[in-house]
Every structure is written in C-alpha cells, then in structure tokens.
Amino acid sequence: MSESGVFAFELGDELATRCGNTLTGVFVPGSRIALSAYRHVTHSSRDAPTETAGQDPVLIYMTQESTLFDEPVLRSVLAEANATFATLQQLGSRATRAEYVNISRAYRSIVRSCLEKLEQAKKSPEVQTDEARLQRLSDAIVVFYAAECLWHLFEILYIQSNQLVVSQLLDWARFHSPQAEDRATDLLLMGEEASESDDYWSIVRSLIMLGEIDITRALLSQNRKAGQTSFKAAEQILKSMPVYQEGYALQKFHSQWEFWHVDTERKIQSGLFATEPELEQLLQLVAGDNEQWDDGIKEAQDFFEYLPGYLLFTKPTCKPFELKIAAANWLNRWCLLQPEKKQCAMNRMVSQLMDHDLKIFIYDAQKLNDTHWFSTHLIDLIHHCGQLKSYFDQNNIDLPALRHSMIYEYGSYLMTSHNMWQLGIDYLDCCKQEGQAAIELLLPRITLRSERQATKLINLARQRGLTSVEREICKVLSKRSYDNERYGNALEWAIRSKDVLLVTAVADFILKHYSKTGCMLCPDTIANVGGRMFASPRLVFLSKYFEFYEFYRNRDFLSASELLVNLLESKITPDYFWPSLLIDSMPLLESKDPKIFAKETVAILHHIETDLVPIIERNVSKYGKHHSETVFKDYRVENVDEILNLLRLACARNLARALIIENTMPVV
Amino acid sequence: MFDVEPIIADHKDVIHDVVFDYYGRRMATCSSDQTVKIWDEDGQGKWNVTSSWKAHSGSIWRVSWAHPEFGQVVATCSFDRTASVWEEVIGDKVSATNTPTRRWVRRTTLVDSRTSVTDVEFAPKYLGLLLATASADGIIRIYEAPDIMNLSQWPVQHEISNKLPLSCLSWNTSTYMVTHLLAAGSDEAATPTGKVFLFAYSENSRKCVKIDTVNDITDPVTDVAFAPNAGRTFHMLAVASKDLYIVNLRGVTDATDISKLDIQTIKFSEHNCPVWRVCWNMLATMLISTGDDGCVRLWRMNYNRQWRCAAVLKAEGSGPTYEPAPPTPTLATTASATAKFYKKGTIGNQVPWH
C-alpha cells in the first residue's frame, strides 16, 4: 500500500529497469494482464538494435490478481452462492425480515460447509504432500473464516435487527472461539479427574468469559470439592442468574438482575469463597469485577472474544446503540492491555460493524482475498432488505448504483474467468441493459472448445435475443472448419450463421473444387441442406446442381436432363461454373436416344453463345490465349475454349435427332 | 496481490507489441529483432511458441489480430515501410495419424507507404475484413480483402492524408451514432495544434474523411485506443500523451439538424511523466496506462463512473514478495459439534473495486 490507498505491486524486471526502458502492460482477454519491458521509439529514431540487446532476458509476465477459486473445493461456493443469489433476486425488496435472515443464513451455511470441506481436503494425503496447494487451502480457510465471522455479526446487528443483542453475540463469539468448548468436552468426559487437570481452572474461566454458564456449572459440579459449601454457593449463584427471555418485562428483569448482582457481590465480599481462590476469581468475573476482566482481556486472542461475555455480566440488556459505546470502551481497554498486538484487518472490521461504520466496512470488505465474493453478495443483500437505506442516504452512498456496479464487476469477472462463465452470466442478467451489453461482448469471446459448448453458448445467446452473438459463433466455427478442411461442417455452420457472404464463399469453394477435380466435397451435408438452401442464391445453385449430379450418377438421365435445363435457365449460375455446367450437358446431348428436346437444345445453344462465349473472351483478353492461369478450370478439359466447338456440334447433332423424333410418328 | 508467471520471450531485442487474439488463448509478439512470434496457451495454462519468423527487414512496431471469423490472420507493420498480412495454414500431413502442422504464410505486403508504417489495425468485424495503417508521412490507408477465402488481394479503399506524421491509430468497435469511426494520433512535437484526429465515413463524399480534431491535446501523442462499448451511449477514447487523457465523444444534433460529435477531454496527471501506451479491458471498466516512470497504472471506473487509479505495477523491486504464511494451528482438535477453524493470517490484500 502506498500513496493514498493505491495498491502497489513490484515486479522486478531487469530489462524494464534499465535506463531508457520502462514497463508496459496489456489486458489479456479474460482477467489477466501481460507485462513486458518497454522502450519508446519513434519513427524518426534510427532503427538499430538497442544497446542493451541480448544482455537481459526478454520476458513477458502473465499477471493475474490472485484468486482462491482455482481450488476445486471452492467452486461449489460459487455455484451455491449463485443459487442463493437467484433466490434473493426473486424475493425482491418486499419480503419479510425472516426471509432475508434465511437468505443470510443460507449464504453463511455455504461458507461453513465449504470451510469443513476445506479442512477435510487439507487432511487428504495428496494435499499434505503438495506444499502450494496446502498453502492455498490454508489461505482459503483464513479468508472464508473471516467472511463467515463478519457476515454472522452483520446478520445479528443489521439484518435481524434485534432489540437486545447479547445472547446472539454470545453465540457468535463462541462459534469463533471454539477452543474452550472443545477442551471442556474433554474435561467433562474425564469426570472427577478433570479437576486435577492443569488447565481446569483456565478453561472454566474462559467458559465463563464466553458466557457458557451451563457448561461451567457442569464442570464445577464434577469437581472433587463439589460438595463443599463454597462450590454449592457458587452453583447457587450461577443457577439463579436471571436470563432475559423474549417477551419478559424489561423493568422487572432489571430489578431481578440487579438484586442477583448485588447479592453475588455481597457473597464474594463476605469471604464465602476465600478458601478457594480460583473459584473466587471466577465469581468475581461473574460479578463484573474490572480487575479480573482486565486479566481476561490479556488472555484473549481477539479483542471481541470476551466482549459478549462481559456484556452478559455487566449489561445483559445491551441494545445495538449501546453496543457501539461498549465496544469502543472495550477496544480501548484491549489496546491498553495488549499494546503489542497489532490490530488485524478482521478485528478492525468487527469494530467497524459494532461502531456502525459501514462505509469503511464495505470498503475494507472489498479487500478480502475472495475476489469480491463476500462484498458483492453482502451488498446485494443489504440492498434488498432495505434496512440500512437511511444510513446510506445520509452518507451519500448511492446504494443501488454500488450494488449494480458490484454485481456487474463480479459477473463479468466470472464470465471472463475460464470455466466460471456459466455462473457469471446469471449475475450479468441482473444488470439490465448494461449486463445485456456485457454478455453480448463477453459471450462470443468464450473459447470454443467443442461443438457441444458452442451449441450451449448459442442457446444462451438465443434465450437473450442476441442474434449477433449466435451468428458470430457460427461464423467462427464455419471458418475454423474450413481452415481444417472439414468442408461439410464449414457449410453447415455457415448456413446456421445465415451470413449470405459466408455461405456463398463456402458454396463457391465447393463448386470450384468440383469443377477443378470432379470430386464433390461433403455430399452428405449438401444432400441435407433442403429448405435451408435459400440462405444464399449460390447455395440454391449448389443444392440443385448436386441434385442433378445425383440423378446423373444414378443414371436417371431424363430427370437429370430436365434439371440441367432448368439450371441453365435459372440465371443463378456463377460465371466460373458455366463451362462445367455446359460440359455436363455434352453426354446428354450426345446420347443415342435423345434426352433433351429440340426447344431446350436451342436454349443450350443460346447459353453457349450468350454466357460461355463472353466469359471466354473476357478470360482471353485478361490472361491471353493459352495462358494456364484461367479464371475457370474444368477437370475434363485442358483449355475451356477448345470445348466450344465440341459443344456446338453436340447441340447440332442432338437438335437434328430431337427434331426428327419430335416431328415423326413412332413406327409401331 | 498478483500471481505472476514469467515467460521467456526469446526475442533478441526489446518487444514492441504484445497482442492477444479474440479469446486470449493466442499471443503475437513483435520486436526490434525483426521477428514475429505466435504463442499458444496449452491446457495447463503454459504458453509455448508455435511459430516464429523474420517478418520484416526493420523493427516491427505493431501486430494486430483479425477477428476469428476471418480465420487465423495477423497483420504487422514495420520500420521497413511496409505492412504485411499473414495467415496460418495447415501444412502437409507428415503421416495420417499425426495432427497436421501449421505454419504462417505471407498473404500480402502492402508497400504503398514511403515512410515507416507506425501502426496497423484490423477494423471491427461489422465492416468486413478491413485493415487500416498509419504512417509517418501522415497518411491513413484503409485496405479491404474483398474475398475472405483468398487474402492475397488487398486493394486500398480509402487514403486520407494529414499534415502531421502519425504514430498510432485505433478503430472504434461500436456502431453507435457513426460508422467507420477511427482515431489517429501524431507524435509531432513542434506545432502547438491538436494531435488527435477523428475520421469517419462520409455518405456525401462516399469516402472516409477527417471529421474532427481533439484540440485539447497538443502534446505529442504516442497511443490512442477506443474503448469497447458495453451499452454506453457515448464513445471513450484513451490517449497517451504528456499525460493520460480519456476523451468522451457524444453524438449531438444541433439546431440545423446536423449531427456532430461533442468532445469532452479528461486529463489524469498521476504518472507525472509522458504516457506511452494505453489499453482497455474487455468491458472498458479498466484501463492500463504505461508511463515513462517505469510504472504501469491500472485505472478503474468506480460506481459513480469516475476513473480512479486502483493499482500501480512497478518495474523495479525484488520481485513478488509474499506474506509470511499464517501459523499452523496448534489447537487440539477433538470431537465437537461445532466446526473449528483457525483464523490468523492476512485476509485482505486485494484491489478494492470501489
């Protein structure tokens, strides 16, 4: 961190630090940055090798903001949160508080189950041997642990909106300081012998400071000395401690509690427990003795660990606004008593929450190493449950804009990170036109690994009415297939793209290839084009020509002739294909029993003169006679102009035959 | 915190341009050593050179990838006064079982410029397969490949002369308001006039013409970049000059019903030194600027739509330093209903968004 909170990162590239050189960076599609050494040159500088050429290695650095989500265990967090997020969007802003609390709990339970999975994963043998992965898992535990802890506190203070917070805070503190409770379980199992255990009293103290009265009583009753008066009196005090229940009259509770409190203090002062110093100290904690609690603070790992317990014994009906003062005082005490402890980020954020300092809390929440999982979902929840609206208004924070922006960034982050795009798209769907526009930009840029994936992308685009994306994907696949010499696929995708130019280009290629080699590419695909042939006039021609080709191959010469004549008349024949088409007519014209009528034969002759001849002339004027590089080729003849006379003769002969047959009666 | 993966570029001299394909899975680099290298990312995220060839007889300034619907095509421009178009083709199969080899072939060399070709960029795909070049003699040339299956023909479609030498150009990818919108910058230092020019297709004269000059920027300009448009109703142009600029272009229609561009220039002086290069991310929510101070600055638009510098990446330093690992928990873990996790360690060193 440097200059007013701007994040600084040092790369340390030798070449880039040499004089005259500097560092440059470009965004890599996805969420990476490529860095490399840069040296500025202009058109007027002399073009010569750099004086440092060859001295330092030239490196490119693929840089990416660290993310935990490469870890497979954590993927489920993203997926499950995505589902909860969707549920919340459906609830909208009019649901009951209980429903929002449920959503909040759902998010937390995702984190908790993920933490458990992480712990398990950490113990697995393959992770134990993989140093890097172990580190990653540990980092993830740290981050998600904090996320859960903060979310839980946030839920207690701002979503549940309880009148009194102590009992919830106790649950919260206990969950996050489970050590004492664990040890207590061990001790309880040991029975009477537990009291000989070295840490017996320190555990009992911790339990009291966490407000675990029942467990403390159980442990005390197991003590060897449990029968003594002092223990019995202690049991009596703890048992009779009034606990506030929902619906109780506050006033009445106060007087009961006050009475119990004074009574406890009196008993301690009377020296009832003087024989048992540990027990006395314990009860002094219960009575809220400041000296004892100061000692307790010194044992705490985090400042907030024993705060709820302290409140239980000093201010059991603490309200949220009172918590603010209590927490500030407690933090001061903690800082005084543990000056050597640095305030860690999490402690700071806990106190921000208690202090109702949400503006800074939200800022700090974004620094959590969770690629904004926590901040995005929490802000979305805050926005929906609407309880903090006045706070944000007062602090000049445009909450809807902030939420929108967070979701947009989070969604686009997921969409640009490989394998997570399917989750990201749901978030962007919540961002109105901007999200739609982002999807339109990002969806076609997802690497097309397989045709199945492409189909999936196309469906998503179609659901959103993004026809341009659909067409773009089809065009890319078509060109890719074409480059890989899979022409049937190329044609198929081209037709799906509905792009006339592309369909024409692919059809052209197939036709030219045929006239050059006599080999029809991808007959199966062409046979299945059917009604889709109208994507391009060239494709219509190709399909029809293919039909002719099939008739001819199956020796159905009559149908073939009819189709050929139709094709010649159709006016969709590409220039380059005229020679092939007319050459095709030759065997039909030369057939012993005529297949083509006189009228059609005249038409063919007409096409030879009006279509083929001008093309040949143009060709000759462009490339010169007998030039090998003609615009068109046919596999059957060497030089296209040579066939002219052959064609004319064939026509003449057929005409003669046809005329005779058509105009004479058949001889029976 | 950033994860860094160094790749040995194996160029003999400094790299001038690193450009990624549409998906970010292929990379083209060019250098003063007159070679172009094509890199592919494998399934494990490792980058490997798959082609490397001497492309020009001078330093190569810039590379540009065509949209994948036109195949695997790159264009290069060089000090040797030419620009070239290269296409990847399948080589001859070595055997039936082997995957065919791929190689890059030169499709054309564009030799129209009489001075160094300083920038080259393929147009957005809606215009077809178009290529614009900027050269030191101040001419912008727009070439078009009429047949996308045969890239050997690249007739010049438009030629626009400017008085000042040009150092960079950028196509606007959005079709909002105007088509064929193109910006170019000049690094000429002597005259105190505007250094960023805007060009667009004029229906009246049926050619591309200069439509405006950004007069606020009079210092030499070394890079311009139009932002991708994700639903904005205005265009953003980043300009690298003595400072970093973001120019907002809004289409307005005046009283006489002629639509023109309203130009608003915002200056960012954080670099405190000349800025050489600019680059947008895919959604134009972030911007990278390269300064002469050895720093790459990362800019981010906050939720109030203000641009803020979010991170600085420095050339110097001893390389990435990592936070010490958090202590392993020593707590005795025993049977208990509650889950237990240790919680010490850093939780926050991520770049905040807002």
What this model shows, in words?
The complex is a heterodimer of chains A (668) and B (354). Chain A starts with 6 loop residues before the first strand and ends in a 5-residue tail after the last helix. Chain A has helices at residues 14-17, 72-91, 97-123, 125-128, 131-159, 166-176, 179-190, 200-209, 213-222, 229-240, 250-269, 277-286, 290-299, 307-314, 320-337, 345-354, 358-365, 373-385, 389-394, 399-416, 421-429, 432-442, 451-463, 467-483, 487-497, 500-517, 523-527, 537-553, 557-569, 578-589, 598-623, 643-663; strands at 7-10, 21-28, 32-39, 59-65. By secondary structure, chain A is mainly alpha-helical. Chain A has four domains: 14-64, no CATH class; 75-163 and 367-431, no CATH class; 167-318, no CATH class; 555-668. Chain A has a three-stranded antiparallel sheet with strand order 2-3-4. In chain A, helix 20 (399-416) runs antiparallel to helix 21 (421-429). The mean pLDDT of chain A is 87. Chain B has strands at residues 2-8, 15-20, 26-31, 35-41, 47-54, 60-65, 73-78, 83-90, 102-110, 117-122, 130-135, 139-144, 156-161, 168-171, 182-185, 196-202, 207-214, 223-226, 235-240, 244-253, 259-268, 275-280, 286-291, 295-301, 307-314. Chain B is built from no helices and 25 strands. Mean pLDDT of chain B is 86; it is low at 320-344. In chain B, strands 2-3-4-5 form a four-stranded antiparallel sheet, with no helix packed on it. Chain B is an all-beta fold and 354 residues long. The two termini of chain B are 17 Å apart. Chain B has a single domain (15-314), classed as Methylamine Dehydrogenase, Chain H (7 Propeller), CATH 2.130.10.
